[in-house]
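quick one, 273 residues, struct below
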Amino acid sequence: MPPRTSLMPVDQDWGSVWPGPRTFHPASVPLPLRQGYKEKDAPPGKFGNAELMKIPNFLHLTPPVITRQCEALKSFCSAWPQGLETDAKCEESFPLEIITSDYCHSSPDIRDPLARIVTLKVKLGRLPLNTHAKDKLLRLVGERYNPENDVLTIMTDRCPLRQQNLDYALYLLTTLFYESWKIEAWESEKSEADMEYYDWDASASRKNVMGLLSWKPDQNAAEMSADAMDLDIKEFKEAVSKIMNEGEEEYTLSRYKEEVKKLFSLQDISSKV
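---
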């Protein structure tokens, strides 16, 4: 019998000829495909070519077939939920992001080892944490937290199956959350010198500045509440915290200098000359 390619009409329905993924068949593909290498002649043709049978192909995924398959799948799909038109709204409604990968490969095993890897991402700001819990959580996760975008990333691959790694990632996130809220007995005995970081609210510097503001005649401190005073010295608080936590650098020192001058209502001598 002659090959099918010589009998097919020009307007042949390709989805009926090649409906799904299959091994390459030269008599069904009306294309002059070549694969392989010869030292002198052209690459071998499609008939009797073992190289074309080795590699996976996507000859079934032509645009008309894809359109037909999408139309058939519409009956099994639900409408897109209202209010989730943008990525920001989706992130607000679904703060937990799970990333997995599927692989197409030729192997005796149907499972690719990389397909078991699960990556979990969540913004730390979406978790209900106070100052103590957030600080403890950051110390537990280490480099898994990115301060630039406030995203905590947990990647698991120790289990053989993807579902097991997903359950393990959720278990780690749950354990980290509840562990961060625990307050040990010895934590109540910590003094300012025992703190891992400089806490402005519990420092002697705040007490001194609040005492300074309480007798400044131009501030009407007698009528100001503690919250109003904290708001008034917010920039000074940030400058002191940066120089204590990040160290003495040119930028932190200059900012601290400017905030001290504002606090004491001082002006540069050079500005008056």
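The beta strands are 97-99, 118-123, 145-146, 151-156.
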